[in-house]
Every structure is written in C-alpha cells, then in structure tokens.
Amino acid sequence: MSLRSDLYDYITADGSIVALIGTRFYWLQLPENVTYPATRYFVVSRQRTAAHDGSTGLDTITIQIDILAEDDGQAESVSTAFKAALDGFKDSPLSGLMINEYDQFEGEGNLWRVTHEYLIHRVSTA
C-alpha cells in the first residue's frame, strides 16, 4: 500500500470525519463544483531513514491537509475532527503528530481554510 491509500483509508474509516465531509478527502486538488466542506491533502516532504546496510523501511513524511468550508463553524468542526484523528495517532503502518495549524479566510472564493501540517511516520511493508 502507499501513503496516499493508507491515509485515505484511515481518514475515511473515521466516523467523526465522515459525518462532516463524507469521502471528500482529495489528493492534491478539489474537483470542480465540489460540495463543502471538503479537504485536500498532499506530501510536502519525505525523508527516508537509512542504515549502513540500506533502508530501514521507515519514512518520515510531512503532509499538508487543507480544510475548506463555507463558514468558520464548518471549518472549525472539521479541523477538530482531523486533530482528534491524526494528532498522536498510531495505526500500523502509520503514526502521526500535528506540527502546524493555520486559519484564514479566502476572500476570492468566500471560503474558510484551515491548514494542518502533520509529521507522518510510515513503516514500509514492502
């Protein structure tokens, strides 16, 4: 499995998140005419841990999750659900820790955006 599919499976199995966004957890960009609230996620950086005899199978990946909503209450509810699901979680082969959060209003689209950054540790199973 890949980080992308592991993370998608983990998030879309979380009842609190699914109650708020369904499966609107998109890789890189939102589709046109998306229903809000919705989220997009992508890899910011990846560091592979090596030993003298090769890879240890441990990756440390920084991911960004953007939560977009039509009002600040929706954005805050989704943000709270993501923090509960991802900050300090351990679900083999993934574990994670929140490192940054930014809130802002995007005037052009009249949307609220909350951005989270997480360090995700992933043990390769292949």
CATH architecture: 2-Layer Sandwich
User: What's the order of the H and E elements?
Assistant: HHEEEHEEE
C-alpha Rg (nearest Å)? 15 Å
| CATH class placement | Alpha Beta
Broad structural category: alpha+beta
Q: Tell me the number of helical segments per DSSP (H or I, 4 or more residues long).
A: 3
Question: pLDDT under 50 segments (min length 5)?
Answer: none
Mean pLDDT: 88
Number of strands: 6
How far apart the termini lie comes to 8 Å
Largest beta sheet: what is the strand line-up? 1-2-3-6-5-4
Strand content: over 45%
Can you give a write-up of this model?
- A six-stranded mixed sheet has the order 1-2-3-6-5-4.
- Helix 2 (15-21) runs antiparallel to helix 3 (72-86).
- It is elongated and about 50 Å long.
- The mean pLDDT is 88.
- With 126 residues, the chain is of the alpha+beta class.
- The protein is built from three helices and six strands.
- The chain has a single domain (3-123), classed as Phage tail protein-like (STM4215-like, 2-Layer Sandwich), CATH 3.30.2000.
